[in-house]
Amino acid sequence: MAVSSYFPRRLPAPDRARLLASIVEASTRKAKDEVPVLVFDLDGTLLDNRPRVVRIFHELAEHWRKRHPAIADRLARCVTEDIVYGLHENLKLQGVEDPALLEEGFAYWKDRFFIDPYMQYDVAVPGARDFVSSCYAAGATIVYLTGRDLPNMALGTFGSLRDHGFPIGVVGTSLVTKPAFDIPDTVFKHDVAPSLSRHGRVAAVFDNEPANCNLLLEHHPHAHCVFLDTHHAPNPPPLDPRAQVIESFEIE
Ligand SMILES: [Mg+2]
Predict the structure, then answer these.
(1) Do 44 and 78 belong to one domain?
(2) Whole-prediction pTM value?
(3) Ligand 1 centre from 67 Cα, in Å?
């Protein structure tokens, strides 16, 4: 994968560890103080969804095995590190060139990527589970604010967070999803951002999309804003200079 344009802004590991420790410290509830609230995006922030794409490609390989054996062989060998942003780009990287086949592959992926049973294939971003758990243990309320939708993805997401050991389903946690699939993620996050204060004082926000970091800072200018430099949609707006850039939650 190409080097991210945010690479020069990534905090060196010791600075990243200091930033994360300061956020754990800010998660400590003080008497009579408002509850600190930490807001985490999921895809590309706490969870790596590339293995979900790989799983679907392996199934697509079997689906295409008889008709397109050469492409099926490549898809079957696909691994997480091969996956880039954009499904068409990924299919082309696996040798799918024919426009009709690209569309068929896209539809196959879309029918699976956004439904509950496939959420189990995601993996946690390194250090994410321990970091979120530390913040929760310190006293913060944890809000998972995701562009995944309630009708099709919320239950699978709940199970995935539980199975990965993130705090979920306990007092002081919340999974916030889009009410409908077709709402653009940034519109949804912009609309709900003010209401995050219902949980308490928003102390930190984490997202892998510059647009979301910017809009969350707009609504919560005193919060730490942490940009996860994993992958993001093409042609992002300039990232707010107040955002700090990390690529994982590892502290060593
Ligand atoms: Mg995301």
Answers:
(1) no
(2) 0.95
(3) 35
